[in-house]
RNA sequence: GGCGGCAUAGCCAAGUGGUAAGGCAGAGGACUGCAAAUCCUCCAUUCCCCAGUUCAAAUCUGGGUGCCGCCUCCA
C-alpha cells in the first residue's frame, strides 16, 4: 500500500504502527455553519480510506474532532444572540445530518474541544515547563524558535515566512510566527480557569491534545485539506513533538480543493455551496460518486453540469445492478446449456478485484478504481444479456460472485446503501414509494401490453410517452416490461 | 517577495520512461413494432510551447507560457 506523505513529498509504503491496526485522525469542522462541498470532500475521501482499510481486514480507529470553541463560533453566536456552545452543538447535529446523507461512517470517537480543556491545559503546561511556551498577560504562546524542525511539513523556513508575512506583528511575541496556545478570556466569551487565568484554547492545540489522548504518539495517518498544512498541521507537529519528543503522526495526507470556476471554494470568497443545497438537487450517491471521480490530491471543479455527468455515469452502474438482480430472480434450470455462456467470467471477476485493489493501494486512486467498477458493470451486462431468461446452477453461482464483487466495490466507495434484510444494494431509481403507486403502474403496464398485443402502437406509445412525462421510464424486454424512475 | 501545485479528445479524467485507461457527449451497426436499456465498432499519430537526455518521453532535464493554491480564518 502506497501513500503519498506530505511530510516527505513522496509515496511511501504504508506500515502501520501496530500490526493489523490503523489509527487515523482527520481534522473536523469548526461548527458555526452548515458544511459546504469543500468540507465534504475530505469527509467522503477519508471515509473511503477508512473503508478500504476495513475491507483489507485492518482494525481501524478513526478519530474526527469538532472545534466547538472558536472566534467564529463566538461571533456567530453574538449575531444570533445565542450561547456559543449551544450554537456549536446545533451545527454538530447538522453536520451529522449531511454526513449521514453522504453515507459517511461515524468516527469511532468525535472529541470536542469543550470536553477536553483539562488535557489541553496539561499539554500547554508541559510545553511551558520545557521552555517551548511562554505566558504574556494571560495569553500563552508557542515559541517557534524553540522547535528547530518548525516548517518541516510545509517545506518553508521561518525566514521564508517572515519575509512575506502579512501578519500584524504583536510586539508581545518573541517571534512573529509564535502562535497562541491559550487565549485570555474577553468579557462575555466562554472561558475556563487555567494557571494563566480564565481563557480558552488556541486553535491548534486541541488536535495535539485529542490526537494524543485517543491515538497516542506516532499514530498512523493524519488527514485534512491542503489549506491545513500551514499553519494548522505545522503547529500541531511543533506542539506535539516538542512536548513528547516523539514523532506525532507518521503519514500526513491532504486532499485538494473543490473549486468553482477554477477558484477555491471557500467561506471567505463566498463562492461556496452548502452540502444540503446540493443534496436538494442531486441524490447523495451521485454527489459521493462525483467527489471520488477525481484523485483526492487534484483540484475538483464544481458545477451542476459535472454532477449531471457523474449521475449518468453512476446510472450505468445502477443499470447493471438492476439487470443483475433481475437475473438473480430467474428460475434455475437443471440441464446444461448447449453452448456455455459464461466463458472466462470467473477469471475476469478475479482480475477486476485485483485491479480495483491495485488502484486503491496506489495512494487511493479512486478515479481508477471507479473505472474498474465500470468494467465490472460491462461484464455483468454482457453475461446477463446472454442468459436468455434462464440460468443454470453454475451460472447462478457466478451471478452471486459478481454480486459479491459489486458489493465489495460499493462498500469501499460507500455509494449505495445496503438492505440489511436482503443483503442487496438499494437502487433508488427502481421501485415505487408505496403500494398504491406500484399497483397503479403495474395496471397501466398491463393495459399497455394488451394494446401492444393488438398492435395498437398508438395507444402503447401514448402511454409510454405519458409516463415518461411523469418521470417513469418503461423498457420493453423479451422477458416483459421493466420500469424505473427517471435518474 | 517566499514556497508549492496543475496543464492529456467537445467535456470529465487515469496514466510518471516502452509506444495514450475509463466515463459523459457524438457517429455507425445489432436488438426492438418504434423506443429505451444493453452489446459491437468508430471517435487524441498525440498529451500547453520550445530545446535537450535516451534505442525509446505525456512521463526525465532546462527554458518559456497560462491557470491555481499556501504564506491571514478556511477542508
From TrEMBL:
A motif ('HIGH' region) lies at residues 29-39. A motif ('KMSKS' region) lies at residues 264-268. The keyword Lipid metabolism does not apply. Its cofactor is Zn(2+). ATP binds at residue 267. Its main location: cytoplasm. GO terms for molecular function: ATP binding; cysteine-tRNA ligase activity; zinc ion binding. It comes from the Bacteria. InterPro entries: Cys-tRNA-ligase (IPR015803), Cys-tRNA-synt_Ia_DALR (IPR015273), Cys-tRNA/MSH_ligase (IPR024909), CysS_C (IPR056411), Rossmann-like_a/b/a_fold (IPR014729), tRNA-synt_1_cat_dom (IPR032678), tRNAsynth_Ia_anticodon-bd (IPR009080). Keywords: Aminoacyl-tRNA synthetase, ATP-binding, Cytoplasm, Ligase, Metal-binding, Nucleotide-binding, Protein biosynthesis, Zinc. GO terms for cellular component: cytosol. Its EC number is 6.1.1.16. Residues 355-425 form the Cysteinyl-tRNA synthetase class Ia DALR domain. One of its GO terms (biological process) is cysteinyl-tRNA aminoacylation. Binds 1 zinc ion per subunit. It holds the Pfam family CysS_C. It catalyses: tRNA(Cys) + L-cysteine + ATP = L-cysteinyl-tRNA(Cys) + AMP + diphosphate. It is found in: Cytoplasm. Zn(2+) binds at residues 27, 207, 232, 236. HAMAP family: Cys_tRNA_synth. Monomer. Belongs to the class-I aminoacyl-tRNA synthetase family. This is Cysteine--tRNA ligase.
Amino acid at each position: 500500500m502506497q501513500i503519498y506523505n506530505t511530510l516527505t513529498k513522496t509515496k511511501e509504503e504504508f506500515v502501520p504502527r501496530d500490526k493489523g491496526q490503523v489509527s487515523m485522525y482527520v481534522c473536523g469542522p469548526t461548527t458555526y455553519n452548515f458544511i459546504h462541498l469543500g468540507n465534504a470532500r475530505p469527509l467522503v475521501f477519508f471515509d473511503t480510506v477508512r473503508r478500504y482499510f476495513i475491507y483489507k481486514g485492518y482494525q481501524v480507529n478513526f478519530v474526527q474532532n469538532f472545534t466547538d470553541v472558536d472566534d467564529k463560533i463566538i461571533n456567530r453566536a453574538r449575531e444570533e444572540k445565542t450561547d456559543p456552545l449551544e450554537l456549536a452543538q446545533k451545527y454538530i447535529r447538522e453536520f451529522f445530518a449531511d454526513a449521514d446523507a453522504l453515507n459517511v461512517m461515524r468516527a469511532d470517537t468525535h472529541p470536542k474541544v469543550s470536553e477536553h480543556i483539562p488535557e489541553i491545559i496539561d499539554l500547554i503546561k508541559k510545553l511551558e515547563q520545557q521552555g517551548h511556551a511562554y505566558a504574556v498577560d494571560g495569553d500563552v504562546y508557542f515559541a517557534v524558535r524553540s522547535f528547530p524542525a518548525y516548517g518541516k511539513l510545509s517545506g518553508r523556513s521561518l525566514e521564508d515566512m517572515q519575509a512575506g508575512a502579512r501578519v500584524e506583528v504583536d510586539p508581545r511575541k518573541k517571534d512573529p510566527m509564535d502562535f497562541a496556545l491559550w487565549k485570555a478570556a474577553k468579557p462575555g466569551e466562554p472561558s475556563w480557569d487555567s494557571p494563566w487565568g480564565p481563557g480558552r484554547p488556541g486553535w491548534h492545540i486541541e488536535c495535539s491534545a485529542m490526537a494524543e489522548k485517543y491515538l497516542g504518539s506516532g499514530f498512523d495517518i493524519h488527514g485534512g485539506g491542503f489549506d491545513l498544512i500551514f499553519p494548522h498541521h505545522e503547529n500541531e507537529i511543533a506542539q506535539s513533538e516538542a512536548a513528547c519528543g516523539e514523532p506525532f503522526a507518521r503519514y500526513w495526507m491532504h486532499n485538494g480543493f473543490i473549486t468553482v470556476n477554477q477558484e477555491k471554494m471557500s467561506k471567505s470568497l463566498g463562492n461556496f455551496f452548502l452540502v444540503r443545497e446540493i443534496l436538494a438537487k442531486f441524490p447523495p450517491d451521485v454527489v459521493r460518486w462525483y467527489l471520488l471521480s477525481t484523485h483526492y490530491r487534484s483540484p475538483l471543479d464544481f458545477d451542476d453540469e459535472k454532477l449531471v455527468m457523474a449521475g449518468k455515469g453512476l446510472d450505468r452502474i445502477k443499470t447493471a445492478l438492476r439487470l443483475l438482480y433481475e437475473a438473480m430472480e430467474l428460475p434455475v434450470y437443471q440441464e446444461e446449456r448447449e453452448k456455455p455462456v459464461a466463458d472466462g467470467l470467473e477469471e475476469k471477476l478475479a482480475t477486476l478485484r485485483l485491479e480495483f485493489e491495485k488502484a486503491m493501494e496506489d495512494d487511493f486512486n479512486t478515479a481508477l478504481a471507479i473505472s474498474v467498477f465500470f468494467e465490472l458493470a460491462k461484464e455483468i451486462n454482457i453475461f446477463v444479456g446472454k442468459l436468455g431468461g434462464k440460468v443454470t446452477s453454475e451460472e447462478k453461482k457466478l451471478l452471486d460472485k459478481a454480486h459479491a464483487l459489486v458489493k465489495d466495490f460499493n462498500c469501499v466507495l460507500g455509494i449505495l446503501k445496503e438492505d440489511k434484510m436482503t443483503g442487496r444494494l438499494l437502487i433508488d431509481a427502481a421501485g415505487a414509494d408505496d403500494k398504491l403507486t406500484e399497483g397503479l403502474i403495474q395496471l397501466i403496464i398491463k393495459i399497455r401490453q394488451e394494446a401492444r398485443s393488438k398492435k395498437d402502437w398508438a395507444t402503447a406509445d401514448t402511454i409510454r410517452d405519458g409516463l415518461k412525462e411523469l418521470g417513469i421510464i418503461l423498457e420493453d424486454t423479451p422477458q416483459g416490461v421493466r420500469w424505473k424512475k427517471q435518474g
